[in-house]
Amino acid sequence: xxxxxxxxxxxxxxxxxSNICLGAMTFGDWDVLPGQxxxxxxxxxxxxxVELGGNxxxxxxxxEGGKSEEIVGTWLAKQEREKFVVATKVRATTGKxxxxxxxxxxxxxxxxxxxxxxxxxxxxxxxxxxxxDKAVPIKETLSALNDLVRAGKVRYLGASxxxxxxxxxxxxxxxxxxxxxxxxxxxxxxxxxxxxxxELTDVCREEGIGIIPWSPLKGxxxxxxxxxxxxxxxxxxxxxATKKGMDLExxxxxxxxxxxxxxxxIIDVTKNVAEAHGKTPAQVAIRWLLQKDVVSSVxxxxxxxxxxxxxxxxxxxxxxxxxxxxxxxxxxxxDPTYPYNMIARFNSDxxxxxxxx
Length: 357
Description:
Number of strands: 10
InterPro entries: AKR, AKR_Detox_Biosynth, NAD(P)_OxRdtase_dom_sf, NADP_OxRdtase_dom
GO molecular function, one term: oxidoreductase activity
Family: Belongs to the aldo/keto reductase family. Aldo/keto reductase 2 subfamily.
Pfam family, one: Aldo_ket_red
Number of helices: 13
Protein name: KCNAB1 protein
């Protein structure tokens, strides 16, 4: 087992978080996903995570209908609250009322109080919009969220699952309206999903926003447990998604994946790099993300303490070489479409090492 986790500033803020964040989507019964953890198992995972140096916990009001927040809350009530950075989210449908959804002032104000009650705390360290809401003027959302910071219910703000122009609009309006700076972007990012690199990583780098990748193992596909021949392992999210005919962003349909040569080339390279370091493919996939300059912390999900310990082994004590990073970058490289391909071609010799040059 590696040394305890490292800590990094979250984006351009003064808030320090462990570079491995524990995602709580596996906590509580939820028929959408298999192999969920009951309260006792969830608390055991949380206890071990803290023993390994973790201090950053991510959940959402919609996970398991609020049960995930409740489980984190019963654990948090027995801890020294100020030692932990607790993140949750708002946007999804949380009730039967017509206003129990979205990013309106009404729903945001109701949702934060509900989350605080379930989490058994009087503040959330990081409050994130779970997605964009096309029905609500973004200025209304920004103003409401800023009021939560002023009231002390929320300490920092972040976004999740937004596009480049949406994040830039949030940044620019926050500046022009004199509101608190947003510090983080939670996004799907891994060796098999690099779409945020077309625009979002540039926005984050320019604006001092820390990226928090979710699904670093693409639903377990990068764990090394999947083989092209045969079926997805029983109990895995990908097996569940395939049987249900779903194609979740974090857990793709395995029958479709089997036909994708590029996916298996990426998995093979990941396995080879892992063997060279005496590590697991999962640790290599997470380490690749941790060595990206805009990543502050990587969210892992765990259904067992063993899974937690394996993933935490990516945190510290070793690094991928420049050659290995380049090999992983190359094999997983996306084929950009217009206008990204033209922009890249025109700027191939216009690269600065840093913004101060």
